[in-house]
Amino acid sequence: MQDLKQRTIRGGLARLSAQAAGFFLRVLSLMILARLLEPKDFGLVGMVTAFTGVLTLFRDFGLSTASVQRTTVTDEQISTLFWINQLVGIVLALLALVFVPLIGSFYHEPRLVWVTAAMAAGFIFNAAGVQHSALLQRQMRFTVIAVINTVGLVVGSVVGIGGAMAGYGYWALVAMTLSSPLVATIGFWLAAAWVPGRPHRQAGIRSMMHFGGTITLNGLVAYIAYNFEKVLLGRFWGADAIGIYGRAYQLVNIPTENLNSAVGEVAFSALSRVKEDPDRFKSYFLKGYSLVLALTIPVTVICTLFASDVILVVLGPKWTETIPIFRLLAPTILIFALINPLGWLLYSLGLVKRSLKIALVFAPLITAGYIIGLPYGPKGVAFAYSAVMLLWVFPHIALCVHRTVISFWDVLVAVSRPLASSIAAAVLALGARFLFGQWLSPLPRLIFETAALFVLYVAVLLFVAGQKSMYLDLLRGMKGPSKQESMVSA
């Protein structure tokens, strides 16, 4: 593939732009839905997704990642993987239906029976678009992917808000959850313009199945580790507690998911193409890593320092119980920015077994934290979650970069400049809030303090911390192909 650097930068910009739009769409829809629905409505759907989310991990069996990671794939292999994905989607939908009575009995909530049955259809919708999306990623068509995902999000938001306004309560959230993947799958089919052929027994996918299976198992362990607290809160503290905790968790994860999806999708595709060239691999990884950190750290500071204003503006005054939980969870935004990109590193290098071993060490630690914090309710669980994550982050980094071209020192250097810049900007922003913020209501105050922090942060990062040259290089990379770029196979 020619001009990989240019394609990567342009693809990253397209994905970042789409994720920025997605961020505002998610926040806007949440603002509206939080005022139309009650915490219990969110809690009921959250109880179901805590279970169905486990099955969602198996929806593509890691085969989309395997397709992108491979240097070359054949049409026979993609077709065979497509039909395997379809089979997996149908099996997962049937399993969800089997678990319907168990979920209702576990939570002592009969309304969950029909919610679970309806959401089972989502597995089939998702499975149908997995390989088409992977093909678009292999072709580095990230602008197309960005447009499709944004359209799906818009349609889902409109469906959810319309249902809530019509008085359908938690069913509006169910419809919202199902409509987005359906629209996205249709878009992937139209954009890829690829029709799968028949499956082949001798397609040579054994190694891809092994790779994807390991990724799926890794994702399962990680999902349980990051979501088991919602099951515990729903079971022992009820729908209201999980509704309140879940909105704080959702708000904290919106920037994390958007940034990791935007940069990670592009970075993984590019790193998989240059994994045989250590110097380019290291350069690509560290630039992507620095970009994620630079965008995430100020968001972490805003959510921590101005939590009350964020909750009052986004969710409204009836969600004030969410404020301390949101503030306790805010540090995890930075932690995930530090550890999520290391997944690109391990997966693109084919080190999926190492990733699984790390997850198997971490999962019992975070689960123990939940159990310790559970008697103290949502606040105790949120504190335990952030505390364990903070203690784990440096061992996690060290284990991931061990014997790779990326060193622990490289990671520290990458995080030091945006972190120092954000601390300096936070001090100045707090001073500005102290002087002027007391005269403002929550919305203008949040706009004022956020704008002040970002302006100061960008100024310090570019001109004091010396990051101006890196971002100028990214801009130059968009203008045309680099003469040093060699032919890289798609």
Overview of this structure, please?
The longest helix is centred in the middle third of the chain and has 68 residues, at 206-273. With 490 residues, the chain is an all-alpha fold. It contains 19 helices and no strands. Helix content is 82%, strand content 0%. It has one domain (4-476). Helix 9 (206-273) crosses helix 10 (278-305) and helix 11 (307-314) packs across helix 12.
Give the tags:
single chain; 490 residues; mainly alpha; globular
Secondary-structure topology with pairs:
Elements: H1 4-36, H2 39-56, H3 63-69, H4 75-107, H5 112-119, H6 121-138, H7 142-165, H8 170-192, H9 206-273, H10 278-305, H11 307-314, H12 322-329, H13 331-339, H14 341-348, H15 352-373, H16 377-401, H17 408-436, H18 442-464, H19 468-476
Helix pairs in contact: 1-7, 1-9, 2-4, 2-5, 2-8, 2-9, 3-6, 3-9, 4-5, 4-6, 6-8, 7-8, 9-10, 9-12, 9-13, 9-14, 9-15, 9-16, 10-13, 10-17, 11-12, 11-18, 12-16, 13-16, 15-16, 17-18
Largest sheet geometry: none
Strand content: under 5%
Average pLDDT over all residues = 80
Radius of gyration: 22 Å
Helix tally?
19
Number of strands: 0
Q: List SSEs in N-to-C order.
A: HHHHHHHHHHHHHHHHHHH
Low-confidence stretches: 481-490
Fraction of residues in helix: over 70%
Broad shape: globular
| Ends distance | 5 Å
Given helix and strand content, the structural type is mainly alpha
Oligomer: single chain
Total discrete domains: 1
